[in-house]
Amino acid sequence: MNATPVDPGSGVVYPVGLRLLDRRVVVVGGGQVAHRRVAGLLEARARVTVVSPAVTPALEALVAPGSLTWVRRGWRPGDLDGAWYAVAATDDPAVNAAVAEEAERLRVFCARADDRSASSVWTPAVGRQGDLVIGVHGGGDPQRAVGVRDAVVAGLSDGSIRDRAAREPEGGRAGSVVLVGGGPGDPGLITVRGQQAVAQADVVLADHLAPQSLLASLPPEVEVIDASKLPRGRSMAQEQINALLVEHALAGRRVVRLKGGDPFVFGRGMEELEACVAAGVPVEVVPGVTSAIAVPALAGIPVTHRGLTHEFVVVSGHVPPGHPQSLVDWAALGRLRGTVVVLMGVDTAGAIAAALIEHGRAPDTPVAVVADGSTATQRAVRTTLAGLAGTLADEGIRPPAVWVVGEVVALGTRL
């Protein structure tokens, strides 16, 4: 909609939330504006009919699964019959005007995308945080509304705007646990849902690889528990972590288990999930951006590339080849042609490289080691499989580090 001021004599907008579940909504037009309106209507679970000779590919993809109905022609009088709500979003003002006129006759509210002053309803800038919906009208200026909406959503996400008023007192509320994957370390790489869960937590059990700056922004009444597991050093036992999650949840608290990467990628998240389920504690899993893919990408290394590799394997290197506890088929990995990504494999790198070479991988296969991925101290070194152990020693590489084996490593050197 345009930002042309609307005559104050027409009255101020009356904000209202439409409940459109299983109610017919007609969208006339199939371009980008229609696409954006349809996305919100489908989220409200309306029965959406799009009337347009052509639609965007994204809208067309929604037809086959039945998410919407597409009438493949231009608008005709009568298309709004039975509608509760209408959107006129074509690039022809005459068509939009005709749709709005019919809507007026049928007493159907209609949002006209090209002319706010001719619309019977204005579409606010909408943001969502769980069941909380933020709608902002900008007094005729959509960009103003978007700016305010974004600021409110950001404040709810990072906790600077605290949504605690709706909570019951601790003693009268059932506790819960959210297992949050915090991503590779940069707080900007946590998911929106993950950041929201942290902002709403009463207790946070955090690893040292989780985004630490998120903890600094928490209110003082939030209890932060250090659940770090240092490589071959101090660590909190997994059994103790499980017990703390259950204990605090059963006391009526919202508990977040904040990990680096993804909770189900070498994160023992399933053990924590099982402990919560066994204790009858409601638990949610919030996937995270795994460092196995993100850290190489941040160093300019794709784990796959068209025409170069059709597979990649992520392997834990916390125990070396030949160790009684190793579950890795190193012989099979040595025969692969694609990419191998090794996590938790700094101290065992020499033994792993030797095993890969022994089972068929060329000694001169490119290798990149990325330490402290996504943080201000990130650095990457390149070597070969045969030279890996020596390079790690010479460069003083310490965990956390991810190393990548394969021809994709050479791609990064061209950038």
Task: Describe the structure in your own words.
This protein folds into 4 domains: 19-122, Rossmann fold; 124-166; 170-288, Cobalt-precorrin-4 Transmethylase, domain 1, CATH 3.40.1010.10; 293-413, Tetrapyrrole methylase, C-terminal domain (Methyltransferase, Cobalt-precorrin-4 Transmethylase, Domain 2). The relative contact order is 0.08. Helix 1 links the parallel strand 1 (24-28) and strand 2. Helix 7 (238-250) crosses helix 8 (269-278). It is globular and about 80 Å long. The strands form 4 sheets. The protein has a 5-stranded parallel sheet with strand order 3-2-1-4-5, sandwiched between helices. The chain has helices spanning 32-43, 57-60, 93-106, 142-158, 192-199, 212-216, 238-250, 269-278, 291-298, 330-335, 349-358, 388-395, 408-413, and strands spanning 24-28, 47-51, 68-71, 85-88, 109-112, 125-129, 132-136, 176-181, 203-206, 223-226, 254-259, 283-286, 312-316, 339-343, 366-371, 379-384, 401-405. Mean pLDDT is 90; it is low at 165-169. With 415 residues, it is of the alpha/beta class. It is an enzyme of class 2 (transferase). Keywords: Cobalamin biosynthesis, Lyase, Methyltransferase, Multifunctional enzyme, NAD, Oxidoreductase, Porphyrin biosynthesis, S-adenosyl-L-methionine, Transferase. One of its GO terms (biological process) is methylation.
